[in-house]
Write a structure and sequence with these properties.
Layout: H1 2-18, H2 24-33, E1 44-60, E2 63-77, E3 80-87, H3 96-104, H4 117-127, H5 132-150, H6 154-157, E4 169-172, H7 177-186, E5 192-196, H8 201-212, E6 218-222, H9 230-241, E7 245-249, H10 257-266, E8 271-273, H11 283-286, E9 292-295, H12 297-300, H13 303-315, E10 319-322, H14 329-336, E11 344-345, E12 358-359, E13 362-364, E14 367-369, E15 379-380
Parallel strand pairs: 4-5, 5-6, 6-7, 7-8, 8-9, 9-10, 10-11
Antiparallel strand pairs: 1-2, 2-3, 12-15, 13-14
Helix pairs in contact: 3-5, 4-5, 7-8, 9-10
């Protein structure tokens, strides 16, 4: 497999370039570039901080939290509105303050039309090296806005089949046996349970055995880089394979590429990159070391780059997953537009929080279900915050 990876890296630059494919909004954008702005229509970006409150303490391999800081965004243009969101769990290195400071630097009046998504997001990306969630908040709002103007949802604009969406998982974080049983019962409407592992062998096996005492529902595993030894990781994967597990996310450190490639060569289950895969440019070095990638809008700056990542990964025959942070239905619905192209979905961030301020995509019989409403098709829960 290492030989395959080396030969691949020689041509990876060409494949990365091939990932950028025109979609209908860009066709509109080409016309917009040739039209002079009358100056009467301008985009206005506004935002507000918001704390997502977890229904349960959320514990993964190396941290716990009861809230997730968000920043909600809105872009208005010519009577139309688009909503976006930045979700910033601590490990991303962003805060509400850093996000809002970044948003202050964004001048959308440089552009005549929201249809210039490609140009706008290249400009936004150039403002600072990181701030990926803040950039996603703009990207998602732009896509919602443009979809509303076009009167179409994004899965339809992209020409994707909404019936091909996978079942989404319901996440059970690391906890006591009693709480794990409670969370497992809450997951009853779902056909896949995502389980956080990566602590000691005793704790990890307790998690699985406790869930299996309640249900035989399919499980996917996220070790969150928690396993430190490749031999131990492979032993755990074989143990898990006997317990109706369908894939493993990020078994080892994102920096342990050779060790992960060794595991991938020998694993009976698909190995998916999560923390190791942030943006489009990461995919080339992960090819051969992982079977697939987990795309998250908050890591990759939003829907525009997520779509490019889908194209590149498909060209490499890599498997695809769409994931999320603890998010409202705004960002979850944006991520759901990618779901028709994926084998797995983990889009439960909105049901893990107690104060979702939007309604959007739904889960029907465990399956990600997309609707025909334009843009993201969002409605407010309670009084609009923006």
């Amino acid at each position: 497999m290492k030989t395959d990876r080396r030969s691949f890296l020689k041509s990876a630059g060409l494949l990365t370039a091939a990932a950028a494919v025109l979609h209908p909004a860009q066709i509109f954008a080409q016309a917009e570039r040739g039209r002079k702005s009358s100056g009467s229509k301008k985009m206005e970006l506004t935002w507000v901080p918001f704390d997502a409150k977890m229904k349960h303490v959320f514990t993964i391999a190396n941290s716990s939290r009861t809230t997730t800081p968000l920043v909600l965004t809105k872009i208005t243009y010519d009577g139309y509105v688009g909503y976006g969101e930045a979700a910033m769990p601590p490990y991303l290195g962003e805060t509400q303050a850093s996000c809002m400071e970044f948003l202050k630097k964004v001048d959308l009046n440089k552009f005549a039309s929201p249809f210039l998504i490609e140009d706008i997001m290249k400009y936004v990306d150039s403002i600072a090296t990181n701030n990926c969630a803040a950039k996603a908040a703009i990207d998602i709002a732009l896509h919602d806005l443009v979809g509303n103007i076009m009167g179409q949802p994004w899965w339809k604009i992209w020409g994707w089949d909404p019936t091909t969406t996978p079942n989404t998982s319901f996440t059970v974080g690391i906890d006591t046996e009693e709480v794990v049983r409670e969370k497992t019962k809450e997951a009853a409407p779902y056909k896949v349970i995502k389980v956080k592992l990566g602590r000691s062998e005793a704790e990890d096996k307790m998690m699985i055995n406790t869930i299996r005492s309640v249900t035989d529902t399919v499980i996917c595993i996220d070790a969150n880089q928690g396993w430190k030894d490749k031999y131990y990781a492979l032993d755990m994967i074989h143990w898990l394979n006997e317990r109706n597990i369908n894939m493993i996310e990020q078994p080892m450190s994102k920096f342990a590429l050779d060790e992960t490639a060794w595991i991938t060569e020998r694993s009976p289950l698909p190995i998916i990159a999560d923390e190791a895969c942030q943006r489009l440019t990461d995919i080339k070095k992960l090819h051969g070391a992982y079977h697939g990638i987990n795309i998250k809008l908050m890591k990759c700056t939003g829907m525009r780059e997520a779509r490019e990542m889908v194209s590149l990964a498909e060209s490499l025959n890599m498997k695809l997953m769409i994931g999320c942070m603890s998010e409202t239905s705004c960002a979850i619905t944006a991520g759901a537009q990618i779901a028709p192209k994926t084998q797995w979905a983990d889009l439960d961030g909105n049901v893990l929080i107690a104060n979702d301020c939007y309604k959007g995509m739904t889960v029907v019989d465990g399956k990600v279900t997309l609707h025909d409403a334009p843009g993201l098709g969002l409605t407010h829960v309670g009084k609009p915050l923006l």
